Amino acid sequence: MNPTGKPLLLLLGLLLLAITTLSQAIHTTPIPKLGFAATAVACVPRERTGREIVFSPAFKRGITSDHLGLLTSWRQDDHDCCRWRGITCSNLTGHVLKLHLSGIYTNEHTGMEGLVGQISPQLLYLDHLEHLDLSINYLEGPSGQIPEFIGSMKSLRYLKLSGIPFSGTVPPQLGNLSKLQHLDLSDLEGKEGMHLADMSWVSRLGSLRYLDLSFINLSAASDWAHAVNMIPSIRVLRLSLCQLQGANHSLAHYNLTKLEKLDLSSNYFDHPYASCWFWNSTILKYLDISSNNLYDQLPNAIGHMASLRVINFSDNAHMGIVEPELMTNLCSLENLNLQGSLSYGNMTELLDSLSNCSNKLSELNLADNNISGTLPPGIFQQFADLVTLDASNNQLTGPLPVEIGDITEEHFANLRSLKYIDLSSNDPLNIVVDPTWIAPFRLERASFPACMMGPQFPTWLQWSVDIWLLEISNTGIKDKLPDWFWTTFSKLEELDMSNNQISGVLPTNMETMALSYLYLGSNQISGQLPPLPRKNVKLDVSNNSLSGSLPSNFGAQNQQMVTLILSFNNLSGHIPESFCRMEQLAALDLANNLFEGELPQCFGMTGMAIVLLQNNRFSGSFPVFLERSTKLQLVDLSRNNFSGKLPTWIGDKKELVLLLLSHNVFSGIIPINITNLSNLRQLNLAGNSLSGNIPWRLSNLEAMKEDNYSFNLDIPDDSSYNNLSVFTKRTELFYGPNIFSAVNIDLSSNYLVGQIPEEIASLALLKNLNLSRNYLSGKIPQKIGSLWSLESLDLSRNKLSGEIPPSLSNLSYLSDLDLSHNNLSGRIPSGSQLDTLYFEHPDMYSSNDGLFGFPLQRNYSEGIAPKQGYHDHSKTQQVAEPMFFYLGLVSGFVVGLWVVFCTILFKKTWRIA
């Protein structure tokens, strides 16, 4: 060999080694905006061929739906898989390193949108894959479980499967991913839910930095804290909503020296704060232990956690007062949330402890506590960085004396960064500022419900031009809306000015506004209702003075509307056909207006829960669009002109709680299957033309029987069902929020016949039973006394006979009784309750000639003959004899008179002849 050949070969070897080392050190390319990797090297042949096998058609065959078009770029004619959406490859080798195909969350109604199908096992072909994100998709497949083969993808460093509705057990094979640094399986709310009883495999993930198992049931994993403690590299740990039974573990040696973020919220920690294992986490920056059942004082150790930036202890059992010295060292604190956790405290002392060092506090939530005390003007002087302040639902007052005003400009003077403030529902809080005052901040969210701000409209708010949420309900404003209001607040998305005396008209350009939630109920708004904002989801303009008809295109551009409340106005005319475009509507309240005519059919409306149309002039048959509404719970069509027969499908609406159809022109029989409504609490069919019998099998009305019966009331919180009333005790009663506790049946003023079903006595929760003004016959059910909750019973003006059941005297809550105008007989049952009722309503037994005994001023021995029941044959004979005598006398007189008349007529006819 040439002597110079060896150095040359050595040089070539070193060059080759350098190239290899360089290729291994190359970083991966970032994902471009459209999801394609701009790479100079196409994916390697083995993986490209694998992609064609796996995804074209293998992977794509496993995908049954792709509404987002995530796989549209995955074409078989494009052999470079590194150009496909969601794929990232190495710059030099072409290996597929990253697969990112996450879906998206939409809104609260439609949930999420993404791929539908299953995860293909052919992913194993990508043996260099480091990053796999298939989150927010419906890729649970037929088994519904996380595929075990993922545990064989040994190169994975990042795995995110959150949002996929898996069920079953988390496969322990995931513990084989020794290189894994990021594992997110959160929000896995399948049909049965995910669960995990043994977390020992987690301890094998020695490189793990991020772990999120939120929503997975870990109630049986008693070793969870010990398993996590074996991963010293972990920095973020999220175990929210995992049904953990406690955090009071005793760890022999604390290994989590790098832990910066800990979220254990919404579990079941029924033990003192001080017994938790994590108080030694001195570098912890984020701590969320909210919505547990922790109690007692905070440990002194929290005073040494100087790195804490975010603390969330909200919604726990009361911890007493936070000792000021515990907060003095928390100079890095940015967010403090103690909502609903303090049993008492003084606002001034708490804020003083937070201002002892150069703090950076930007968010402070002290809502729903028992914090009391006055608010001196300089209380917020040290909090120039404060962005969020929530002190609602406490017992705060302003400085004394009250005459000078509670909250003034001085309180707000230094809050230059403030964007969100909530001072609602305190004891009470008056906000008195000069009308010409210019606020130093620009609010984006402002909540002042029940704070006195009137009587003039608060003009200082007009400088917050970026505000998107404004709540000033029940604030004592008695003023006209200023001219600048709708223009200045053009970015408003949520507005609540209800329960004031605000006057004015709605702007004609509301259609272009950003408003999603608009509450103007109980004011003095007048004029016509203009076209609504296109993004409007919930609208309440009830209890105003609106008039005229609805816009001709009403509802055409409001397809997201969920709650529509127009009750107690003077609106008139027909409901336009365009109303049917509101197919998301769940609550409709048009009550107490002047609407007329037939309702549109609206076959597309299937989500209705509340339909309140009472006190209008609607006509036509029973609204057809209700048949397709599968979630009906409240229906009130009373006091209209609806006619025709009641539909038999009404018995299929198993979720119905209230069915109020009184004072219409419905006819025919009551559908027999109406007793299938096991959730029904109120049935009112009074004042119609219904005939036939009362349906039997009333014992199927379970919600009227069992005191502990639970029915799921899934209706919008802002619905105006508080205006629903019940006619009972001879008057109309408004139950307000307690309307569902009133269990009632009212079938009065119809043409019902037959007997009262004996099964009605099984409805033990009935408070009001009214069957009056019908043609019912037979006896009162003997077990009527079983209706122990009954407060009002009206069986008057029927054809009932027989005795009054003695059990009626057992009804201790009965405060109104009417049995008048029947054919009842026999002795009246004795009882102090019935005697008291008689003196209040002495007509309750009238027109029942067969009744006797106390409290009536007559008895059987005085000769009052009952029509039925008791009979005295001797008295019957004494009465019968004179009756026969007079009957014979009258008959003889009539016959004699007829003979004389015929004789005279015969003689007169003969003479003429």
UniProtKB/TrEMBL annotation:
<keyword id="KW-0812">Transmembrane</keyword>
<keyword id="KW-0325">Glycoprotein</keyword>
<keyword id="KW-0472">Membrane</keyword>
<dbReference type="InterPro" id="IPR003591">
    <property type="entry name" value="Leu-rich_rpt_typical-subtyp"/>
</dbReference>
<keyword id="KW-0808">Transferase</keyword>
<keyword id="KW-1003">Cell membrane</keyword>
<dbReference type="GO" id="GO:0005886">
    <property type="term" value="C:plasma membrane"/>
</dbReference>
<keyword id="KW-0732">Signal</keyword>
<feature type="domain" description="Leucine-rich repeat-containing N-terminal plant-type">
    <location>
        <begin position="58"/>
        <end position="90"/>
    </location>
</feature>
<keyword id="KW-0418">Kinase</keyword>
<keyword id="KW-0547">Nucleotide-binding</keyword>
<dbReference type="Pfam" id="PF08263">
    <property type="entry name" value="LRRNT_2"/>
</dbReference>
<keyword id="KW-0433">Leucine-rich repeat</keyword>
<protein>
    <recommendedName>
        <fullName>non-specific serine/threonine protein kinase</fullName>
        <ecNumber>2.7.11.1</ecNumber>
    </recommendedName>
</protein>
<dbReference type="InterPro" id="IPR046956">
    <property type="entry name" value="RLP23-like"/>
</dbReference>
<dbReference type="InterPro" id="IPR013210">
    <property type="entry name" value="LRR_N_plant-typ"/>
</dbReference>
<dbReference type="GO" id="GO:0009742">
    <property type="term" value="P:brassinosteroid mediated signaling pathway"/>
</dbReference>
<keyword id="KW-0723">Serine/threonine-protein kinase</keyword>
<dbReference type="InterPro" id="IPR032675">
    <property type="entry name" value="LRR_dom_sf"/>
</dbReference>
<dbReference type="GO" id="GO:0004674">
    <property type="term" value="F:protein serine/threonine kinase activity"/>
</dbReference>
<keyword id="KW-0677">Repeat</keyword>
<feature type="transmembrane region" description="Helical">
    <location>
        <begin position="883"/>
        <end position="906"/>
    </location>
</feature>
<feature type="signal peptide">
    <location>
        <begin position="1"/>
        <end position="25"/>
    </location>
</feature>
<keyword id="KW-0067">ATP-binding</keyword>
<comment type="similarity">
    <text>Belongs to the RLP family.</text>
</comment>
<dbReference type="Pfam" id="PF00560">
    <property type="entry name" value="LRR_1"/>
</dbReference>
<dbReference type="GO" id="GO:0005524">
    <property type="term" value="F:ATP binding"/>
</dbReference>
<dbReference type="InterPro" id="IPR001611">
    <property type="entry name" value="Leu-rich_rpt"/>
</dbReference>
<keyword id="KW-1133">Transmembrane helix</keyword>
<keyword id="KW-1070">Brassinosteroid signaling pathway</keyword>
